[in-house]
Amino acid sequence: MFDLVDTSLRMAAMKHKIRHLVDMNVGRVCFDEPLKNHCTWKIGGPADVLVEPGSVEQITVLRRYLHEQKVASLTIGQGSNLLFDDAGFRGVVVKVGRSFSAVDIDGETVTTEAGASAVRLARQCGLAGLSGLEHIVGIPGTLGGLVAMNGGSLRQGIGDVVVSLEAMDKEGQCHSFMRDACGFAYRTSIFQDSDWLILRATLRLRKESPNTIHARMLEILRERREKFPRRLPNCGSVFLSTEQMHATIGPPGKVIEETGLKGTRIGDAEVSTQHANFIINRGNAGSEDVCRLVRLIREKVYARTGFRLQCEARKVTPAGNVVRLDCESY
Ligand SMILES: Cc1cc2nc3c(=O)[nH]c(=O)nc-3n(C[C@H](O)[C@H](O)[C@H](O)COP(=O)(O)OP(=O)(O)OC[C@H]3O[C@@H](n4cnc5c(N)ncnc54)[C@H](O)[C@@H]3O)c2cc1C
């Protein structure tokens, strides 16, 4: 009983303090905010607090406070690679968005803030006659999320063009990283599932005719429209398509399809009939529906091929840990 009173008093004090720390004119604070409104899968219960900071200064004081008070926190962009739990998140979600979307182009060097939309960044660079980001033109999400995931398509990753970046540690100190220190490898970086908050990145692109870049982007978008489901909520490819997997049994979509799992459904979570590496939310899917479907796919594929699929998508536990969706220990 006393524990319960103590917890709610602590929570009320934290909410009051955060509201005070984030100047509401430039930032936004929401309490008990449904996380399904902040991810492309449209799944997830409430976060105690969700903050959309308006300035680096706000992020600094907020992170310092959360660290001192030992409050769990999580940085997100557009939530296009995340599965939130139906129970939500007991802590503070920091959403890096529109207030951090400035892009500066100087010759072949592009400096972009972490909240910039990947799609808009690709288009802006294309219009400026800079090539190297065409492969991200159809990827939802922010530059920060893309860097953390080393996301990309056509066997490329954003890390290929990163020169350096700036990130903040959990105590509010900013650090610079040259490309070699970022640990970029296939769909991973040192920033993934870590406490770092990426603030901005400097990219090096190469000059090419805007018309040629535009044509290449249209072709990429056309192919994606044909291949990928677009109507219902999803989080893109659920399983990683590693080189080793490609070489031994083929890409995950093909393997899942050959295992006869297209259209398999648990609750409202369904293996897309259009592309089997996508799980779509038919309306009211819960996090457990998706997790059970992921387990089923992995078991069946393992039984047929002897290969263990690994997830690209991440699960956020109620305590704030970010783990691979196939991680059995959450
Ligand atoms: C329809 C669809 C198609 C997709 N296609 C592709 C594709 O072709 N290739 C591909 O790679 N991905 C694809 N994705 C997945 C996703 O869009 C990318 O991983 C994207 O880069 C994630 O960006 P985000 O801002 O949404 O990050 P989130 O999903 O919000 O976060 C992803 C991870 O990055 C971390 N993160 C986010 N922002 C920051 C920050 N500022 N600092 C530190 N860490 C941060 C989060 O903590 C989390 O661990 C697709 C998704 C969808 C829905």
Would you kindly provide a written description of the structure presented here, covering whatever features stand out?
- With 330 residues, the protein is α+β, with helices and mostly antiparallel strands.
- The chain folds into three domains: 2-98, Uridine Diphospho-n-acetylenolpyruvylglucosamine Reductase, domain 2; 101-213, Uridine Diphospho-n-acetylenolpyruvylglucosamine Reductase, domain 3; 237-312, Uridine Diphospho-n-acetylenolpyruvylglucosamine Reductase, domain 1, CATH 3.90.78.
- Helices cover 30% and strands 23% of the residues.
- It has helices spanning 2-21, 56-68, 118-127, 143-149, 210-227, 243-248, 252-258, 287-305; strands spanning 28-34, 46-52, 73-76, 82-84, 89-95, 103-106, 109-113, 130-131, 162-168, 174-178, 197-204, 206-207, 265-266, 269-271, 279-281, 314-316, 322-324.
- The chain has a five-stranded antiparallel beta sheet with strand order 6-7-11-9-10, with helices on one face.
- It is globular and about 55 Å long.
- Bound molecules: flavin-adenine dinucleotide.
Task: Write a brief caption for the model.
The chain has 330 residues and is α+β, with helices and mostly antiparallel strands.
